[in-house]
Amino acid sequence: MTPHSTKQFLQNPSWKTLDIYTGDDLIAAYLKGKKEQRDQTKREFMEKFKKNIEKAKNASEHLLGTLEKKGFGIDSIHLKADTFSNFSILFVVDKNDFIKDQFREAFIEARKEKVGVEKEAFVINFNFTPSSDHLDEKCLNSEGFFLRYYGQR
Question: Does residue 77 sit in helix, strand or coil?
Fold first, then answer.
């Protein structure tokens, strides 16, 4: 076919050129879709994570109120995310309160709070430790406790 006849062929209204996708075009489209899905999944994950953090903070504050009403001195509360739906809360308790027999009530209240807020996709664990001059905030941070409660007292 001569160049002249090819030109005539392309100008023939009975025939139209097709949009042809190369392998590179298909790979680029696939990767774009994959990235969009990954971004959407990340947004959904972060939204669930934020909601779960709020649940953990609210449960911790509620337990704090209950413990303070019972007269226990709480020095600080620290929050750690073990996974996006599993949280560990550490209550640093006045050492004189921690050694009292009555402090067993704190464990009972923590269990009630745990049972009250846990769902299939949300787990919370409350732990207690006595306050100490040797308790180092930086060590708690290195253990993954990234939030500390500074609420109104």
Answer: strand
Q: Which of 128, 124, 79, 125 is nearest to 103 (CA)?
A: 128
- Reduce the DSSP state of residue 91 to 3 states and report it: strand
Predicted confidence pLDDT, tens digits, the chain (153 residues) = 455 555 555 666 777 767 777 778 888 888 888 889 998 999 999 999 999 999 999 999 999 999 999 999 999 999 999 999 999 999 999 999 999 999 999 999 999 999 999 987 899 999 999 999 998 989 999 999 999 998 764
Other Cβ atoms within 10 Å of 57 Cβ, number: 17
What is the b/e burial string over 38-56, where b = at least 16 CB atoms within 10 angstroms of the residue's CB? eeeeeeeeeeeeeebbebb
Q: Residue 127: which of 85, 81, 84, 78 has the closest Cα? A: 78
Helix axes 104-117, 23-69, angle to 10 degrees: 140
Whole-structure pTM value: 0.75
